[in-house]
## 1
Amino acid sequence: MAKQLPKTKAVNVADYIVERLAAEGIDHCFGVAGDYAFPICDAVDSSAKVKWIGCANELNASYAADGYARIRGAAMLATTYGVGELSAINGVMGAKAERSLVFHVAGMPSYQHQRLHKIAHHTLGDGVFGNFVELSAGAACCHAVINPENCVVEMERIIAEARRNHQPAYIAVPSDYALSPVVSADVKPIVPRSNEAALQKAMAIIAKRINKAKSIVAFPAFTISRLGLQKQAQKAIEALRCPFVTTLMEKCVIDEGHPQFAGVYAGAVSEPKTRQIIEGADLVLDLGGVNLNDITTAAYSGQLDLSRFVTIGLDDVRIGDQVIANVRLEDILSELAKLKPSSTPYKGKPHGLAPVNGRPSDKITMAALYPRYAAFLRAGDTVVLETGSSSLGVTPTILPDGVRVEAQVLWGSIGWATPAAFGVALADPSRRTILITGEGSHQLTANDVGAMGRFGANVIVFVLNNSGYLIERALEENPNWTYNDLAPWNYAELPKALGCANWYTARVTTLGELDEAMKAARAGKTGAYIEIHWRQNGYAAGSRLRPWST
Ligand SMILES: Cc1ncc(C[n+]2csc(CCOP(=O)(O)OP(=O)(O)O)c2C)c(N)n1
Ligand SMILES: [Mg+2]
C-alpha cells in the first residue's frame, strides 16, 4: 500500500516530522528533553501516534532506539543541541555500524540566534552553530538541516536514503523553524527498488554459479534480521537445499533446529564439520553481507576463500570484481526461493539442547549456567546479549527454536544491552524480552531499569556478578589489575530503588536458588531481576584460558 504523507496544511515543521516518522511504523520516541528540542518534544507529546519515552540519558536513549529499530525496522530518537546529541553519538554510531535504522532528531538554537551569531548555552561560546551538525551527521548515513521550505522534500530524501542503507539518519531542526508552518511540496515517498534488468543479470550469474558448484553453503548475514527478512531468507535457503552457517552476529537468525543448519562458524574454533562445510564449499552465498571481523572469525583464524563468495548486499551483488548495483536483497531472496536445484536437501545432525547438570546445593558454575539459560528460553522470547563473558558463553550454546537473539557484536559498546532490551521490549510486547548482562556493563546504563518499570516493559534481567570485568581479566597477563575491579553494588536491590513496582528480584548463589528464581521470573507478569553471584578463587590469566566456560 502506498504510504500516505502527512497533510501539510497548517501543520508546523515539528508536527510534520513526527507525523512523517509515524508513517514509517514508529510509535515511540526515545529521548531526553531540552529547550532547543522543546518543539520536537511537544510535537511527540501531543501526537496521538507517537509516545514519548523519556530515558535517563541520551546514550541510553540511543541504545534503546537501536533495540527498538532492530525489531520494528526503524526508531526515533530525540535529543537537544550539543550536550544531548553528543551523548547519543556512541549509540547512534553503533547503530550505523550494525545497520540499525535510527532517525535522530536534534533540536538546534533558533535560526534567529544562528543568524546573529549569538553566544548561547550548549555552544562553544563562539557564535558558531555548525560544529555539532558535522559530528552527529558522521554517525548517520545521511542528514538534513530542516527549514520550512525544505522540510517535506528533505524528509523524503533522507527517509529513502536511510532505508536504502538501513543506517541512521540525522535531522537537525532550529527551534523557531520547528514551530513555523511547513511549506507543502509535491513529492511522493521513494521506496528503494531493484532495477529489473540489473536483477535479471545478477540472477543469471548467480544461477550459473549455483549450477556449476559441487557444493554450496548459504551464509545469512545479520542484515537479514535488521531488515526483517528472516522468513524470506529461510525460504531461499530451503529452495537451495544447501546447508547454512551463521556467525555470532546472526545467532538464531533462522532456527538452530532447522535441518539445514550446519553450525556457527567462528574460524578455527568452529566445530570441524561446520568449518569444513563452509571453508570447503565451492560457492558461499553470502545473503546480506556477513561481517568477517576479529570477533566473528576468532581473531581472523580459519581459511575462508573470498573468491568463492557471491555477496548479496542490501543494494548490490558482488561476484569477484564484478558489482551489479541497484539490486535489492529482498528481491534476490525471492528469486532464489523460486530455484529448483536437483540435489537432495542437506540434512545436518540435529543440534539438541545441552543437558541441565549439577545438584541444587552446588555453587553456580558457567558450565551449569549456559544449559540453564537454554532450558529457560522458549519460542517467543527475544534475548538481548551484552558484550563480555556472557555473550561469549551463550552464543556457542544451542538455543530453542523460535528464540530471537540481539547482540552488538561488531560495535561492542558495553552498557548497550540494558537499554537495548528496554527498546526491544517496547517494540514488541507480545514477546518476552530477556536481558543477559555482566555487572560491569550493566553499571554503565543500569539507571534505565527504572524506565523499564515506568513504561511497563516486563524484561527478565539476568545480571552476572563476577566481581568485575572477567573477560578483560582473562585477556590480560595480570588478571589482578585494579582497573578491572568495580564498586560492589547490591544489584538485586536496584529495581526497588529505581521505582520498579512489584518486580520479582533475587540474588542467587546456588543452582537450586537459580532454578527457583528462573521459575518465579517466568511465572510473573511484571519484570524480574536476578543477580547471579559467581566467584572464582583467584583468576587465571591468559587469553587461552576461558574462565567463562568453567
Ligand atoms: C563502552 C565500552 N567501554 C569499554 C569496553 C571494554 N570492555 C569490553 S568487555 C568489558 C568488561 C565487561 O565486564 P562485565 O560486563 O562485568 O562482563 P564479564 O566479562 O565480567 O562477565 C570492558 C570494560 C567496551 N567494550 N565498551
Ligand atoms: Mg563482570
## 2
Amino acid sequence: MSTQRPVVRIIGAGPTGALLAILLQRRGHAVELYEGRTDPRGTPLESGRSINLALADRGIHALRLAGVFEDLEHAMLPMRGRLIHDPEGGTSLQPYGQRPNEVIYSVSRHRLNQALLEVAARLPGVTAHFEHRFEAAEFDEGMALIRDLRHGRLITVPMEPLLAADGAGSALRRRLHSLNLIDAQETDLEHGYKELSIPADAAGRFRMARDALHIWPRGNYMLIALPNDDGSFTATLFLPKRGELSFDGLTSAADIDRFLSESFPDARDLMPNAIAEFTGNPVGFLGTVSARPWHYRGVAALIGDSAHAIVPFHGQGMNCCFEDCVEFDACMDRSSSWESVFAEFFARRKPNTDAIAAMSLDNYLEMRDRVVHPQFQLQQALSLELEIRHPRRFIPRYSMVTFHHEIPYETAWQRGIIQGELLAELTAGPVQSLADVDFERAEREIIARLPLLTARA
Ligand SMILES: Cc1cc2nc3c(=O)[nH]c(=O)nc-3n(C[C@H](O)[C@H](O)[C@H](O)COP(=O)(O)OP(=O)(O)OC[C@H]3O[C@@H](n4cnc5c(N)ncnc54)[C@H](O)[C@@H]3O)c2cc1C
C-alpha cells in the first residue's frame, strides 16, 4: 500500500492479533495492540481453556513467513495419526497422511501466544497494552473507547484503521451488527466441551502413545487427547449440553464416574482427577460465526475468529486465522486504501472460510462416529491408494486441508465433494477390500471429473 504508513490499532493480542502485529510492523507500520487480559508472558497457564492446539501446514507456513517458526519448533510434538480407542480398550491407528512430513503438531496455546508476543514486542514500533478492553466505537467519528482496567479509566483512540482480532465473541463485530453496519450470525452447536487431564506417570513419562491424537468415538459424543511436552495429555470431552446424556444431566460424582468408566474405561484409569475436573471446569462454547462483510468502510475490519469462528473438529481454527494474516498482508501489496484492502480481503477470504466452516462441522460426524465404520475405513485406505496412483488429481480431503496450504479451502471442499461421490461409487455393492476395487474405472473417472491440480489450485 502506498499510504504514509499510519498507526494501526488492533484489538486482541491472541494468536491472530499478535501475528498480524508482526506482519504489519514488517511493512513499516507502528502497531498499538489492546488486549483485555493480563500479559501472558508473565502469567501461568489458565486452566479449563483448551491448552493445546493442533498446528498444521497452513499455520506453519504463516509462522515461517513471519519469521517466528524457529521460536516455536522445539515445543511442537508431532502426531502422525488418529489413535482410535474402542469401547473394549482396543486401539488402531489411522495415519493422517502417507509421507513422513504429513503430520500435525500439538502445541501449547499459551506458549504459542507467548512466543508471538515476545517476537512482536521486540520489534520497534509495536506497543502492547494489556488489561485494556475495547468497549465501544463511534464508527462515523472514527473513535474507539478502550477501558484501561488497571486504572479504571476510559481512553479514546482513533480508528482508521482498527482491526478487530478479539475472537469469537468479538465486541466490535457485535457493535457493527447492532448498528446494522454488517450482517452477522452466531450459530451455537448443541454440544459443548470440557477439559480433563491425563497426567504423566511418576517418572514423567507419557502413559499412552505420544505421537498420535487419541480419539474415543462414541456416536453422539467423544473424548480426544493431545500430548503436552511434560508427559501429560490434555483431554477434551465433547458432549451435548442438554438432554438425557449431557453436561447438564451429569451432576453427581457417582453419575460422572459411571459415565466415564463405562464410555472410556481405558482413559478413566489414566485420569485420577477426572471427577474434580469435570465438576470444576466450565463447559466451553462451540459454534460458528458468519459475518458479511467484515468491515465498515476503511474504518474498521474483523479478522480471525472475530470474522469467522468455526467448530474445532478439523483442528483448523487457528491455522485458518494465521492464513488470514498472510492473505491480509498480500492484499496490502495490491490495494491503495484501507477500504480497498478490507474489501479485497473479504472477497478473497470469505469463500474459503465458509468452506472450512462447513468441513469442520462435517468432521465432527467423522470423528465421533464415521471413523469406526468399516466402509469409512475402506474409503480412507482407497483415498490413500488413489493419491499414490494419481497424486496430481486425487488428494484426500483431510490432506488437502491439513498438508497443502497451496490448495485453498474452497478448492478442497469442492474437490472433496466429487472425491466423496467417487469413493462411494467405487466401494459400493460387494466391494470389501482394496483388492476388489476396479482401478481402471477409478482412473477413467478421476481423469474425467478431477482436473489436474495446479501450483495454486
Ligand atoms: C476446544 C477448542 C479446540 C481448538 N483446537 C484447535 C486446534 O487444534 N487447531 C486450531 O488451529 N485451532 C483450534 N481451535 C481454534 C483456535 O483456538 C482459534 O481459532 C484461535 O484461538 C483464534 O485466534 P484469535 O486470535 O482470532 O482469537 P482468540 O484466540 O479468541 O483471541 C482473542 C483475543 O482477544 C482478546 N479480547 C477479546 N475481547 C476483547 C476486548 N473487548 N478488548 C480487548 N481484547 C479482547 C482476548 O482476551 C484474546 O486474547 C480450537 C478452539 C477450541 C474452542
## 3
Amino acid sequence: MNRPFFLPENASKSQLKDAENARKNRLEIVKALSWGQVSRRELIKWGLFTSAGLLAPIGGLNPFVSSSHADSGTIGIPTGAPPSPGLNGLAFTQPMPRFDVLPRIPVSALSPAPQAQSNQTMQLVDPALGGGYGPIEGRPPGPIWAHQRFNQFPPQVAVEAFQGCASTNTSYKPNVSSSLNCGIDPSQSIPLKFHPSLPTQGPNAVWTFNGCIPPKLVQARYGEPVLFRHHNQLPADVIQNGGFGRHTISTHEHNGHHGAENDGFTGAYFFPGQFYDYHWPIVLGGHFSINPAATDPYASTPDGNGGLIKVPGDWHETMSTHWFHDHMFSFTSQNVYKGNAAMFNIYSGLDRGNESINDGINLRLPSGTTNDWGNLDYDVNLMLSDKAWDQNGQMYFDIFNFDGFIGDVMTVNLAYRPFFEVERRKYRFRILNASVSRFFKYGLSDGSTMIQIANDGNLLPHPVSQTVSDEQGIAERYDWVIDFSRYNIGDKVWLVNVCEHQDGKKPAKDRTVADALAGKSPDPCVGKMLEFRIVRNPAKADQSQVPNTLIPNPDLSRIPVTRQRVFEFGSGASQSSTNPDTSFVGPWGVRTDGGQMLNADFGRVSAAPQFGTREVWTLVNGGGGWDHPIHIHFEEGQVLARNGSASNVPAWEQGRKDVYRLKPGGSVTITMQFRDWGGMYMEHCHNTVHEDNAMLVRWEINGAGAPFLNPLPTPIPTPQGVTFIPPDEIAPTAF
Ligand SMILES: [Cu+2]
C-alpha cells in the first residue's frame, strides 16, 4: 500500500471532504460495534467487512446512517483520514510533564479492607447495566481467584486509583522539584489537553487513571507487597463512550510475576461501579526454590535507611521497568489508546534509584540522592504514543483497519512534541512504546551515543552503546542512559524517530536520522519527537555510574527442557468456538503446535506447562507482510535464537524479555521456567489491533497445587456476578 494513511495538509478540498464524510460514516459503525449493537460476525455477513477484516469498498449504503446522510460520500479503503488539525507551530513549545506519581497509602486506609477471596458484598447495579444487585468487587469469586499466598505476602502498601472520564488534574505529584520538571508548578491545575493551545478533551474522548494527565507512575520495591485497588468509574451506559472504548476493564501488570488472579486476565474484566483488588507481591522469580533462606545480598531490597533487606529468590530475575494497562477482551486497543496505560518502577538492592549509596550491590544508575530509594530526579519515565483527533480536536480512533491503527500526532507523556530541560550530567530514560500499532526507532539528532541498559523489565547483562535504537515494538521498554555533560548550556538536541509506517502491519522503512530530520518521510510521526534543552550544570556532582556488568542471566543449563511448543502467528484464522461470551472473530490468529490457525477464545486452553518445569517455545511469524511483537505473560524468557540461530540475537536482546518482535517472516526461540504462581495466563500480539482481532491464546500452569483444577473453569463476568463454565476446548497438545 503506497497511499498515505493520513491525507497530506495540501490535499484538495474535495479529497478532505470525502475523507471526513467517510470517517463520519465509519464512525457510525464504530459506535454500533463499540456499543455491542452489532457484532463483527454480522458485519462480515452483511458484506461490510471483507474476509480480510477490512471495511468493504462500497459506497453510500450503510445500515447505521440515516437516509439523510446517504449522499455523504463513499466508503473507500484506504481512504486515509484528514490530518489532525491545529498543530501548526506547536512543536517544542510546551514542557514535557514528568509522570504523576500515585500516592502510596497505608493498607488500613482502604475501605473495605482487602481480602484473599473476592469481596462479594452486594450493591445496587445501575439500571444501564441491567439493574438488580451485584458484587462490589469484580474479581471472580471463590478459592481459584483468591489471592495466592495472601497470608504469606500481606500487602504492606496500597495504591488506589480509578478509571474515569477526562477531567482536570488538581493534585499533580511529580515527586521531583519544579526545576527538574521544566519549571512546571504542580499546584496549578492541569486540564486534559495535548497542548495548551489545543482543545480540552471531552469527558468521553479520553479515559485515564484518575481521569487526568500526566500519565501515572507507581513506585514499589521488592519484598513489599502492593495492593492495587482499581475502581471502575467509567459511564455505566455502554453508549457513553465517545465512539470508541469499552467501559469494562481488566488491568494487566505487564510483566508481573504474580498469581494469575492479579494478572488482568482478558476474561476477568470488571464493570462500572465495581473495584478489583490486584495483589502484587513483588517477589523475585524462584522465590520458593532458589535462595529460599534469603542469604544472598544481591537478592535484596532497600531498607529505607541506606541498608539492604535480603529477600528470597534468584537475583538474576530482578526486574525494573514495568507498565500496566487494560486487557479487556477484544477492546484492549481502544481502551489503552483512550488512556488506560501507566508505568510501574520496581526498585531493588541492585537498582534502588539512589546513585550515591556505595554498598557493593547498588549499581548506582542515574537517579538522585535525596531519598533512600526511588529518586526520580534523573530517572525519567517516557511514554511514546501516536494519537489522532477529529476536526473538533477530540481524540479519534478508527477500528476499521485490522492491520492496525496508526496516528499522525506524536506525543511524549501525552504531550504533543514537547521539550524537556536537562542538566549537564547523565540521565536514565525508561522509554515505553505505548502505541497501538506503531513501532519506533530513534536516535539523537547529533548522532551521539545512547547507552541501552535495559530491555523490557530487565537490566541487560551488559550495557550496549548505540547511536540508533533497534525498532521498539509496542509494549517494549528500552531503558537508556544519555550523558548530557558533553553539551554546553544553551544547546539543544532532539530525540528523532526514524521508523516510518504506511500502515499498521509493520514498519515500512527505517530512515536515517539525517533523512528524518530533513523531512523526507511522509509519516508525520517520523522526525523530532522530543527536544532536550541543556539548561544548567547540576548543583551536585553526578555520582551515577553505568557498570560494565549489570544483571547476568539466570543459569538454566541444569534444568531439563520438558517440552517444546511452536506458536505460529498469522492471518486467515478461523474460529472453532461458537461461544459468544469467550470468542471473537477477525483476520488474525495463532496456530499451536501445527494445528489450525485459530481466532482467540479465552475459554480455550492452548498450552498447559507443568508447574516447576522449563520449556522452549518457538514463536513463528506466519507471513512476511507484517511484524508481530508477541507478549508472553508472567515469565521472563531468554532468547535462544532468531530464525534458528543464536548468532542472530543482538546484544540488546541477550538479557531477559517479555515481548518478542518476530520480524516479517521471522521466528524467535525462547526458554522459560514456570514457577512460584499458578492460574491462567495469556500470550498474544501486542499490536493490540491484532490482539483484539483475534491473535491471543490462553495458557495455564498445570499442577500448581490446590485449589487449582486442570484445566481451570473460565470466568464469565456480568454486572450481577461472575459465573464459571468449563473450558470450551483443550488444544490436543496443551497438556
Ligand atoms: Cu501482530
## 4
Amino acid sequence: MAELNLVLLGPPGSGKGTQGERLNEDLRLPYYATGDILRAAVRDETQLGKTAKEFMDRGDLVPDDVIIGVIAERIEGSEAADGFILDGFPRTLPQAEALDDELEKVDRGLTAALLIEVPEEEVVRRLGGRRTCEKEGHVFHVEFNPPEEEGVCDIDGSPLVIRDDDKPEVIRHRLETYHDKTEPLVSYYEEKGLLRQIDGAQPPDVVGERIRALLSTLRMEEDI
Ligand SMILES: [Zn+2]
C-alpha cells in the first residue's frame, strides 16, 4: 500500500484538529500536531526535546531548526512508515522546504497538502461565539452549544467569559497572521501539484467524508 504523507492547512477555527484526529483513527496514521510533538519530545527527554525545553522555559519561541529536528525524528521513526498527518507544521515557507529536504533524505515525499478553507465570517462566527467557563475552562458556544442559562457554566455554575483569543479584534489579527504566513505555503504546494482544497464551511461529518473520498482517489492514483 502506498504511503500517505499529509500536511493539513487551514485557518484557526477551520476544524483542522478535529479532522486530523478523525484521520488518525480512520487511517491509523500518526497525527502530529506541532505543540503535542514538542511536549512529547520534552517529556521523553530526547536531545531535541532538551534543546526545545530551554527555549520554552525562557518563554521564547522554539526556533525553526529545532522544530524541524523534532518533526524529522518523528516522521523518520517506524510508526510513520506508512505515512503521517502533520498539523501546525510547516507554518512558513522555510519550514516547508526543510520538510521536503528531510523527506528526500529518506526517499520519501509528501502525498498531499490538504487545505481546509473556511470563509473569514464563518471563522469569526465559530470562534467569536465561544464562551469559556472561568473556573475550569469548560467550553460552550452561543449558537452551536449554548449553556442552559446564558453566561453560566452548566457543569459548575461559574461565569462564562470570552477568552482574549476569541475576541473579534484578536480573531481578525490571528487570521491576518495566518494569511501572511500561510498564503506563500499554499502557492508552494500548488506549484508542486500537491494542494487539495476542501470546503470546510460544511458540518464536520461532511468535511470528513470529503477528505476520505479525496484520499481514496489519491491512494488509487499512487497505486497505479
Ligand atoms: Zn465550568
